[in-house]
Amino acid sequence: MTEMTYDTASVAAGAAASPRRSRVIQIAHRLLTWLPGIALLLFWQWSAGRLIKEIYVSKPTAIAERLFELFTSGEIYPHLWTTGQELVFGYLIGVSGGVIGGYALGRSPRLARIFEPYVMAFYGIPKIALAPLFIIWFGIGMWSKVALAAIMVFFLVFYNVFAGVRSVDRELVNLTRVMGANQRQLTFHVFLPAAAPYVMLGMRMAIPYSVIGVIVGEFTSSTQGLGLFIHEASATYDPAGVFAGIVILLAFVMIAGALAGRLEKRLLRWRSPAGSGPTDI
To answer: Both 31 and 66 in a single domain?
Structure first.
């Protein structure tokens, strides 16, 4: 009886210690994740003014002060609103076009043979070279930046969706057809679920490219936006302002990446944990 009590107490203690150990491991992983960034910031703070002139790289503390000034004065809000709109519209248009185009060409080998060489040729054009052309077509307002961001997003999503649809097991498709499935059921119950990991990969990869497209367009010609703010800060030798704009852009990318990650977990919750991410090497 004493041994059974001892075993029960040991199991209970082990069960109580398991969540505690898991929390410690999570905290340790987070610290390891943040450690390189903290070390870089500390080295940057120390080296600015010692190893390199502060006029070139500013200091993290000066950048933080500049960010505080920008948000408390409200100077940055019109730029944030403009760039945010351009990013959202450009990203959504590019993703929608990439999913539709990639699915259409992935389902139809005949269309793929006809249009894939043209898509590949257009993909080879440097998108930055299209910025002046889009400004001629759409003006210096928001839509020229939206068009540039959409083009950069489109190709990444298109090729991922195209590869995902082409990778669907043909035996599974034939079996579903034998069971009486129509084209709509094949689309929503076979092809799109099978291609969903590819779609989400393309969407996550496209986030920084949408930012690049918008900022390049704002550098070229604009009346408002973070790209214009960074360009003006650079022209006036304000490195703290330049890095403040870059920090805000990084925040855009990180927030969008986190939202895409949550969407991916929700949409792909049917996958096994073993296949949900890369393994450590």
So the answer is: no
Identity at 47, one-letter amino acid code? S
Q: What is the pTM of this model?
A: 0.79
For the chain, give the mean pLDDT.
81
Mean pLDDT of 121-125: 82
The span from the first CA to the last CA of the chain, in angstroms, equals 48
Rg (CA), the chain: 25
SS (HEC) of the chain = CHHHHHHHHHHHHHHHHHHHHHHHHHHHHHHHHHHHHHHHHHHHHHHECCCECHHHHCCHHHHHHHHHHHHHHCCCHHHHHHHHHHHHHHHHHHHHHHHHHHHHHHHCHHHHHHHHHHHHHHHCCCHHHHHHHHHHHHCCCHHHHHHHHHHHHHHHHHHHHHHHHHCCCHHHHHHHHHCCCCHHHHHHHHHHHHHHHHHHHHHHHHHHHHHHHHHHHHHHCCCCCHHHHHHHHHHCCCHHHHHHHHHHHHHHHHHHHHHHHHHHHHHCCCCCHHHCCCCCC
Q: For the chain, how many structural domains are there in total? A: 2
Residue 64 within a domain: yes
Domain assignment present for residue 281? The answer is no
Residue 280 lies in a domain: no
Q: By residue range, what is the domain housing residue 182?
A: 55-275
Tokens of 174: 């034939």
Q: Are residues 19 and 91 in the same domain?
A: no
Do 106 and 197 belong to one domain?
yes
**pLDDT the model gives residue 260:** 83
